[in-house]
Amino acid sequence: MGKHNGKARKTGLTVGSALVNKARREGRTGGAAAFLHTTDLEGPKKNMQSVIESNDLDEMMAMADLAGKDFTAEKEHVIVISTGAVASVDHERLAAERKEAEDRNRHRLRIPRRPAWDESTTPDQLDEQERTSFYEWRRELASLEQDERLVLTPFEKNLEVWRQLWRVLERSDVVVQVVDARDPLTYRSEDLEAYALDLHPTKRSLLLLNKADLLPEALRSTWADHFDSIGADYVFWSAKAGMDEHSTDEDVRTAAVERQRVGKDPRARVLGVDDLLDLLEARAAAAAADAEAKGVGRASRGDRLVVGLTGYPNVGKSSTINALFGSKKTAVAPTPGKTKHFQTLNVTGSLCLCDCPGLVLPQYAQSKAEMVAAGVIPIDRLTDVRAPVEAVAARVGRQQLEAVYGLHLPAPGRGQDSKRPPTAVELLRSFAYARGWVAASGLPDETRAGRRILKDYVDGKILYCKAPPGASPQVLALAAAAGQRQRPSGAAAAAGAAAVAAPPSQQQQQQLEAGEGQGGLAQQGAAVAEAGQAIADGSGAADGASGAGNGAAPQAGPEVLDLDEGDLLLMDDLDIGGRKAKAQRPAYKFHKKAVRSKGDRGQKKELGAMYDGAQIVQGKRGGVVRIPS
């Protein structure tokens, strides 16, 4: 391999030939197709990347490709589309008009349907029909935004992803919508249930409320009342607790079983793995029996009953399958949209699970921040985190944020409500400074702090639960108090609740004041950790008791020093207090090798009487040196 001189090092091709060859293989050899910014290009490999948001140019090109049209730009024909004038806005009147328009056009907000087909339909005909139907659906939603001035959430715009949903719906006996139990109505699609019935009269739907262990039992009971009143079939479930059932730690398994214990309301019970498998198989068998009774064929083909799992991204479909199997069968990631193709997995000899990629369905929304907070838009791709963090702070409140993160947020100004939630700037800067996350310019790294807060909100570390529509004030208070149950987990909770560190002596105070930078912090952290460990072991109480028994004068009580999560993270970063386990050397490095001998090099040798008393020494390079006596 020679130096890089504009040629590929191995093949000798010019730099960039790999891109040209790839474009040729995909059919983009020239013309308008070489510059189309769309995910629907036909080629040997379908693009399964989820497309939720796109700029105006990409949107126009995608619609033109679906319609099979081309265009040419016109130069020197300027059209003014905005004069820059801003009219006064009546927000209350606009909100009322928007609500009325949403109710009037709710029937137009539906998922795309697959055109009817049979065995005589050729693949090319079906592809053309699907593209035409999808184009008409996109135009219908565009007219809602343009004509009715309605705001829609970002939704899936890739036809290939919708095709995965169509296949899952067609081959399933039971369609399960996996929703987040903290806000189930945001993730539930009534139109999806109606579409399932349109495909087959006996196809049943089930709501699987995942992450139900984050809700108190009383709140789960109120949601059970709501779903019973509307006639929806539902069940509470926790994929995390299901995975804990297969843990090798006995304490973890015991805690998982305890969460599944039947309380006062049997409807609010969080099912285990075996219970959920039995329920899914029973629902699918009932759907098959109903089809046989009505004299129609089953929705699925084959001997096994098929249960399809659908829903929004990042609600736990793949995690549910992994929990049911007890091992990792599908890829799971905190980024929404990890699953790209639907997968069929045989659970038992008579039951098959079909995992569908997550789809963001179109809904009415006030802002994109609500969708980001819901976790359906990838958080790692965000550049502006202030709006979604503002929404999260308004939901969870000041008290929970300070308790979970151990922060001291800025107090509201004079004349402001003392209980108002913190602003995004206040929360992001306080969180970033507490963690030591500073950008190169010396300003707090708000992007990193915002992504961390949003991920914690999606994962349930900071909790917010919604109450059912029309709930009583008691239920609303119960939902609001659910998040206040959250406390710092692990050592943060124990350290925050304990009184640690006695007042330092004068000598210790001088040592602490003399410490500078990281060394001073390390000394303080070591003292705090030592005192905290003494209190955790009960030594402080024992010393106090022994002192009192010996007649010693009682000492002043210890000064209360609360350790929040930020202090503990700082101690971990500085490796103080023995909190961070030090890496051990591998065992093989302790195996000492035998000492290599230098032989007789450089040593004097007595050769006996054959010489005249002289000595011969073997040199370092193997030569012989005669040394006169």
TrEMBL record:
Subcellular location: Cytoplasm
Keywords: Cytoplasm, GTP-binding, Hydrolase, Nucleotide-binding
Comp. bias regions, Low complexity: 494-515, 540-558
TM stretches of this protein: none
GO cellular component term of the entry, any: cytosol
Entry's Gene Ontology molecular function annotations: GTP binding; GTPase activity
Chain positions covered by the region annotation Disordered: 494-523, 540-559
Domain CP-type G: 162-362
Keyword GTP-binding in record: yes
Taxonomy, superkingdom: Eukaryota
Main location (coarse class): cytoplasm
Protein's name in the database: Large subunit GTPase 1-like protein
Organism: Chlorella sorokiniana
